[in-house]
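Contributing new records

If you add data, match the layout below exactly. Sequence lines come first and carry their own label; structure lines follow with theirs. Keep one chain per record. Anything else will be rejected by the validation script.
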Amino acid sequence: MSETIYNALGWTLIHSIWQIGIITLVLFVVLRSNFLKSSNHRYITVITGMLSVVIISLLTFLFYYSGNGRWKIQPSIYQ
C-alpha cells in the first residue's frame, strides 16, 4: 500500500471520532424527544444514522486520498 492510502486512512480515523460523536449526539436528541413514537420510525432513524457514519467516513477518506487535505500554504520557515 502506498503512503497516500495510509495517510488517508489515518486522517479518516481521526476525523471519524468527532464525526461519529456529532451523529450520535443528534440521534440521542432525536430519540429522546417524544417525536418518534413508532418503533419503526426509531429503527429507520437509527439505520439512517449508521448509514450516514459510513458515507461521511467514505467521503473523508476520498477527500484525503485525492490530495485535497494537504497543506496549501507553506510555513515561512521552509521558504
